[in-house]
């Protein structure tokens, strides 16, 4: 099946509720629709939470009786929405469903929906711009350094009876607060990073996770990490210095040993290249600074570079890479394009 035609990157729960194709899938699932929405979840892993909540609400509100007048339905919805601070676009959708719902369950269903949107404000989402690096402190005092063009989502308060969970798109370095002291591991002592195709689970450790262009790479600095891979029968256990790269499109997993400091050197504004092809360097520049690269000579893609480069100043970085490889990098600010020549 081809990639989803709709861009779901900005979808919230209400948007899925207003999506006729999504609602039809929940109410009348089919093999084709199952495959389509599974692909949506793979391409937009940070939307898994919103999709699941929307699915539950559709199931709750899909009743067939209709005894309440439309005016009463809308009046009831407005009263609850004003109390819970809901957005306007929820109102027409609720009215459509309420016409199909029995009067005995209307108030309960609306209240459940209102409480959901009220509680959804407890979830935080943070995104960095191109070229921006940010540090966040999570509810358990764990520290996350978010690389440029990256997004993280997590609950503003974590329940001791549930795992500490975050959803990541992009790249981040985690310094996880170790809560486990002795005995069996309690649910709230687990820390899980979801990337869509991989779950990275730890108790307390420091590690780098990169999820870009459909692939995930994890580099472990301290502690111990267990990776639960999509479609794998058993988890992969990592030790300090291990790097694991996984591409779900072809189920390819590669594991090797490396200096764990190198994978997270970007936190200090440093890029370390070790016989790195120019093609890989340009991919990093596209993902980090938001440029589109035009390579005038494809043979240049295989030129290799080793060295340490400062990344906080993109202009200085481009000049340094160009000088080191003996190439020309011309920047077009209007189109955000980089033209690479010999």
UniProtKB/TrEMBL annotation:
<keyword id="KW-0812">Transmembrane</keyword>
<feature type="transmembrane region" description="Helical">
    <location>
        <begin position="97"/>
        <end position="118"/>
    </location>
</feature>
<dbReference type="GO" id="GO:0016989">
    <property type="term" value="F:sigma factor antagonist activity"/>
</dbReference>
<keyword id="KW-0472">Membrane</keyword>
<feature type="domain" description="Protein FecR C-terminal">
    <location>
        <begin position="271"/>
        <end position="329"/>
    </location>
</feature>
<dbReference type="Pfam" id="PF04773">
    <property type="entry name" value="FecR"/>
</dbReference>
<dbReference type="Pfam" id="PF16344">
    <property type="entry name" value="FecR_C"/>
</dbReference>
<keyword id="KW-1133">Transmembrane helix</keyword>
<protein>
    <recommendedName>
        <fullName>FecR protein domain-containing protein</fullName>
    </recommendedName>
</protein>
<feature type="domain" description="FecR protein">
    <location>
        <begin position="126"/>
        <end position="226"/>
    </location>
</feature>
<dbReference type="InterPro" id="IPR012373">
    <property type="entry name" value="Ferrdict_sens_TM"/>
</dbReference>
<dbReference type="InterPro" id="IPR032508">
    <property type="entry name" value="FecR_C"/>
</dbReference>
<dbReference type="InterPro" id="IPR006860">
    <property type="entry name" value="FecR"/>
</dbReference>
